[in-house]
Amino acid sequence: MxxxxxxTITYRKRPSRRAPPVPKDDYRIEALQDxxxxxxxxLHPEDHEFERTFIKHLSPxxxxxxxxxxxxxxxxxxxxxxxxxxxxxxxxxxxxxxENGRLxxxxxxxxxxxxxxxxxxxxxxxxxxxxxxxxxxxxxxxxIDVARKHGLTGMFTVEDPANDGIRELAGHLGFQCAAEPCDxxxxxxxxxx
Length: 193
What we know:
The protein is an alpha+beta fold and about 190 residues long. It is about 25% helix and about 30% strand. It is built from five helices and eight strands; from the N terminus they run ββαααβββαβαββ. The protein has an eight-stranded mixed β-sheet with strand order 1-2-3-4-5-6-8-7, with helices on both faces. The longest helix has 15 residues, at about 135-150. The radius of gyration is 16 Å and the shape is globular.
């Protein structure tokens, strides 16, 4: 977590190399509260189009709350950043459904470790029609479990205080809320792992 005197978060820099292998044993079919089944698995390098389509079809409000900015379609640079996971220091889980014979992304959770390697910033986003089914906490629990497995000691997210869904989720998962020291218009939720 950034100290109050610093207003930037420094993330661990990963050396440039081939994409790491995708974990083979981390695939789960999960039942949501309404009985709908989703596949939850690590993000794959070939999921680029799933991720682009998912972000593009979020409501403008959902995109603004997730990325703290406004845009209609994700830029290639943003997509490259989101797809860059090594399954230890940067992790992402996607929730996929079968729809008309094809897979479609309906949610994603992710983290990126800070430069000290002990903490990570997290995010979760669920498609508008898939909220209130238990998918958001399910994705976060997977992320929290893998962060603990990788020895991280803390998780945080910086959010717009108007994001009622994240406030409720954070409370449900045990995150603590405080003013963001770098921007008084934002809040920071933290969880000790």
